[in-house]
Amino acid sequence: MTTANLSQTETAADPLALIDVDHIRFFVGNAKQAAFFYAYTFGFTIEQMADLTTGSRDRSRYLLTQGNIRMLLETPLSKDDPAADELRRFGDGVKDIAFTVEDAEAAWKEAVSNGAEVAYEPLTISDESGTVTTAGIKTYGRAVHSFVSRTGAYAIENVKQGGDFEPGFKRIENLSINDFNRDNPCGLMFLDHCVGNVDDGKMNHWVDWYENVLGFAMFKHFDDADISTEYSALMSKVMASGNNLIKFPINEPAPGKRKSQIQEYLEWHDMTAGVQHLAFRTNDCMESVAELRRRGVDFLQIPEAYYETVWKRVDRILTENGHTPVREDHERIRDLGILVDADDQGYLLQLFTKPLQDRPTLFFEIIGRRGSQSFGKGNFKALFEALELEQERRGNL
Ligand code: FE2
Fold it and tell me: 359 CA to middle of ligand 1, Å?
């Protein structure tokens, strides 16, 4: 039996076996404009769209792609759309982390029978080329998980190759930013993890939810011990899908010396849980960050003092665990303002953007892994010092 056959058999046996992250859906105030922001700053291709001109009368939708990342930017066109109310309450942000599965309706039924609350009922749209079925469950706060199953031309293998996303979408041709992005890649490959901020005292509730509803398991990693520090002012646990396709760290605020970033997020998000950051994986963090900086991405500024201690800290951990030291040029890492952390399996390079919209809510992380499977806890102290500086500038400390 080949690996492909094996995975198909497993998928058939378990309706909640996740095949891929189908897409990340955002609610934004103006998808037409947001598309250009993400294309120019992060190098996404503006690939397909649906709006009034294509007969989509309720919402406009732009599909942006890069590597195996598909972002769907969605804007309600009427004030009576519930999405309009969400935009008023939360501003732009992530609504949906959608999973590709073999059979969306079966996955949805299984999740609901496991205790999930219904976000929306199964819906199939089709044309002569194939079908797309979606069904949604509610997760923390304003976020949902859609299950998506696809057939014919809309199968995920075809979508990955640039095929049509869904019936009714129009391909976007002759856009110079798409040509520019092809010639100047940012190197983002896939969604490494998706972090949620939940209400005070609710972390364990949502950890149990991912276990009971979706069959995820607690992901054991280096950061587990003493996750809450004076500086972090947060508690965090990581849940991973069965095949480790995707990891969901879940944060709750913890008491600290100053107002935590989790608390700040909640206060600007109508005291409602939601997605705090999306981490995109790159094979070459240096090249990615250099290109993103060239395009004007607003990254967190790392205090100069950080680089006075980082190599000693990281190399000690790597040596103790029999790994070779960080191979990237140390000076270039410092010049690019990249963070470094290590664990028993290796090291990682990471960097966080500032909030992507006016409210201090959603941001992105760029992450490159050299063996390390953790999330950069060693950077919490440095990160929090940098974050607090930003909070102070916004008058929110
Ligand atoms: Fe992260």
Answer: 19
